[in-house]
Amino acid sequence: MLEIKNLHVAVDGNEILKGIDLTVKPGEVHAIMGPNGSGKSTLSYVLAGKDDYDITEGEVLFNGENLLEMEPNERAVAGMFLAFQYPIEIPGVATMTFLKTALNAVRKERGKDELSTPEFMKLVKEKAAKLNVSQEMLRRPLNVGFSGGEKKRAEILQMALLEPSLCVLDETDSGLDIDALRVVSDGVNALRAPERSMIVITHYQRLLDHIVPDIVHVMARGRIQRTGGKELAKELEAKGYADYVGEAAA
Ligand code: ADP
Ligand code: MG
Ligand code: MG
Questions:
Q1: Is 231 exposed, middle or buried (0-12, 13-18, 19+ CB in 10 A)?
Q2: In what residue span(s) does the ABC transporter domain sit (predicted)?
Q3: Which terminus of the chain has a smaller tally of CB atoms within 10 A, N or C?
Q4: What is the pTM of this model?
Q5: Where does the chain have alpha helices with state H?
Q6: For residue 45, which atom of ligand 1 is closest to its CA?
Q7: Of ligand 1's atoms, which has the minimum distance to the CA of residue 35?
Q8: Cβ 135 vs Cβ 164: under 8 Å
Q9: Structure letter (DSSP) for residue 179
Q10: Residue nearest atom 6 of ligand 1, based on CA coordinates
Q11: Residue 168 reports pLDDT greater than 80
């Protein structure tokens, strides 16, 4: 599904990712944990195709294709969904309209018919009900004045509608409140499927009490320092990241 090989990334001449290797197979849920400044968000931005990152070495294959040569929208069409800490606000565009446009754009590129408004309404109602998204919220402009939990609901609803094969969620530092935490974890768990993979990036072990990962990676100083099973998250909760941030971890 996703294969990252020896990925080196620099910003303004400073190397931030220093050789990342990561393989995600269909159906797997991976957690990437690590201290602030270790490069977790940089990795998610590179996967998203954000500008300003220089890939100095390495490659990323998504379903066997060179991801780094794809435009951000091509990545979405190919089945990648990225959720970020700071969702954009779109004044003047109802959440419902935004979601319909996003879904139909992807369907069109995937060679599927666009959904009519009644078809879309039926689908969105069904998915929204499962995620506790109210009809009132769907009429409001996307993210404008939304609470943290509502933003997460809108994002997870978008994810549910687009039916991605790989979801990358960067939740680091976002200080999810209990409501938002539950929305994210219930949403992610509901979307777990044998053909769908997830990468959950988080600073906090707490999220992983709700989204139980198959594989946990510790990232520090631009590298994956350690990989283990779900018990690794528990160990990090108890011991913190001290073992990974000192000179010894370089
Ligand atoms: P994390 O998400 O693990 O906290 P980041 O990927 O946000 O880490 O940041 C990794 C390092 O790269 C930090 O030292 C940060 O200051 C630096 N960095 C990230 N983005 C930029 C940027 N656009 N310009 C300069 N430095 C950056
Ligand atoms: Mg960093
Ligand atoms: Mg981050």
A1: exposed
A2: 2-246
A3: C
A4: 0.90
A5: 40-48, 72-77, 95-109, 117-130, 135-139, 148-162, 178-191, 207-210, 231-239, 242-245
A6: 6
A7: 3
A8: no
A9: H
A10: 39
A11: yes
Cα(107) to centroid(ligand 3), Å: 31
Q: Name the residue of 17, 20, 32, 42 whose CB sits within 8 Å of the most ligand 1 atoms, as the mutation to test its pocket.
A: 42
pLDDT in tens, 45-81: 999 998 899 999 999 999 999 999 999 889 988 999 9
Which residues are bridge partners to 30 per DSSP? 199, 215
**Rg for the chain (alpha carbons), in Å?**
18
Nearest to 200 by CA among 176, 220, 177, 184: 184
Q: Which residues line ligand 1 (CB under 6 A)?
A: 11-12, 16, 34, 36-42, 52, 172
- How buried is 167 (Cβ within 10 angstroms: 0-12 exposed, 13-18 middle, 19+ buried)? buried
Nearest CA to ligand 1 atom 11: 37
What does DSSP assign to residue 132? T
Q: 79-88: per-residue pLDDT in tens? A: 999 887 566 7
